[in-house]
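User: Last request for today: this protein with zinc ion, please.
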Amino acid sequence: MKKKLYRCIHCGIGKTTIKNVEKILSFNNNTVLVNINAEVCDHCGERYYEPETVRYFERIKKELKSKDSKQLIPIGITYKVAI
Ligand SMILES: [Zn+2]
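Assistant: Here's the final one, the structure of the complex with zinc ion:
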């Protein structure tokens, strides 16, 4: 399968390649880590997501809003610095 290279719209210099990236989705003070493939610019690092990936993010956000999600597993506590 031949990989298609796109010119980055953000910087206009780099080309994008498919990479596995970590995306953080948030709702209120809760966050979910999602490992997903995205087109990433090799110059500025701008990410481009497929429409189905964006829909997937929306589904995960809905899960985050529901109090009794079975798809989301707690993996730790997120802290902020008390000033
Ligand atoms: Zn770029």
